[in-house]
Amino acid sequence: MALSPGEHVLVTGGAGYVGSVCATVLVEQGYRVTVIDDLSTGNREAVPDGAHFLEGDVLDAAPGVLADDCAAVFHFAAKSLVGESVVSPAKYWSGNVVTSLRLLDLMRAAGVDNLVFSSTAACYGEPATVPITEDLPTAPTNPYGASKLAIDHIITSYAAAYGLGATSLRYFNVAGAYGTVGENRAVETHLIPLILQVALGAREKIMIFGDDWPTADGTCVRDYIHIRDLADAHILAASSNTPGSHRIFNLGSGDGFSVQQVVETCRKVTGHPIPAEVAPRRGGDPATLIASSARAMAELGWSPTRSDLTTIVGDAWAFTSQLGGRAHFARG
Ligand code: UFG
């Protein structure tokens, strides 16, 4: 069932940040790509020209796509804001778990048995040790992480019972840009794009959420991975899925950077002073999250080449600084 160029791939959520970069790389590599996205958070212009685009609900549009000689599904469509999941959990259980379960049933009915699922480091919650391996206990601390973990459990059982071949990729902090696709959201909560909005003059300053964490400089440490490296892992996964097996891989660079170090890197890359101010801790943040990606490297043959922080920020800045009127966030 391994996937090869030329085959038809369904990308759900392919107008979102991660989905659109994966769709772009799939098109570049010669796959026939159909994107389904309801544009609730995605951007139409992020869908690559070479992909067929269906605007609407995944479950409405998927049956026709799956019946069209579809070889694999890359499932990104999801709600993905931790804070929102705490306030509106119904959106997450329904939008993530129910939709994914129904999509899996549609795949089963159509005989499509190759799945790559967009999972998250939030499945692990506050880890007892770092780096985080796939064998550590899963203990999500919010409904977002819990909903993604529930889907992983469903996939495991579908692989065992129904012969699905699947890979879940648990991303750490995805950042950077690829060509004309990057982080361009109306509502932005992520550190690097927010800092770059300050450099652009669209925001006055960056708030650092706490400087009293048990880390070297007191600010939270995260593992940043380049969006283009992430896309490679998805295609490697689909190309090596085997029926009856559900693999789970963490994806990060293996290096941790503090919020303060990220701000400093952005100052160097952009040449902008980027004012910063310490604010209270944000609820639900763990102090340190660093991935072990050893399993993905060994078993998928994945080797990230762009995930050093300067390259990530450089690519993100090249994207953000040329957005002009195409920015979806409010500009200064
Ligand atoms: N931060 C600030 N100021 C900001 C925004 C963020 O100091 O204005 C800090 C956060 O407190 C955190 C770090 O920057 O310490 C990174 O925050 P992000 O919001 O960029 O990312 P998270 O680590 O919170 O979240 C990421 C993914 C989630 C995923 C989670 C796994 O975006 O989807 O990792 O824990 F669930």
UniProtKB/TrEMBL annotation:
PANTHER family: UDP-ARABINOSE 4-EPIMERASE 1, UDP-GLUCOSE 4-EPIMERASE. Pfam families: Epimerase (PF01370). It comes from the Bacteria. Coiled coil: none annotated. Pathway: Carbohydrate metabolism; galactose metabolism. Keywords: Carbohydrate metabolism, Isomerase, NAD. One of its GO terms (molecular function) is UDP-glucose 4-epimerase activity. Gene3D superfamilies: NAD(P)-binding Rossmann-like Domain, UDP-galactose 4-epimerase, domain 1. This is UDP-glucose 4-epimerase. Residues 9-252 form the NAD-dependent epimerase/dehydratase domain. It catalyses: UDP-alpha-D-glucose = UDP-alpha-D-galactose. One of its GO terms (biological process) is galactose catabolic process via UDP-galactose, Leloir pathway. The keyword RNA-binding does not apply. Belongs to the NAD(P)-dependent epimerase/dehydratase family. Its cofactor is NAD(+). It comes from Corynebacterium terpenotabidum Y-11. InterPro entries: Epimerase_deHydtase, NAD(P)-bd_dom_sf, Sc_DH/Rdtase_CS, UDP_G4E. Its EC number is 5.1.3.2.
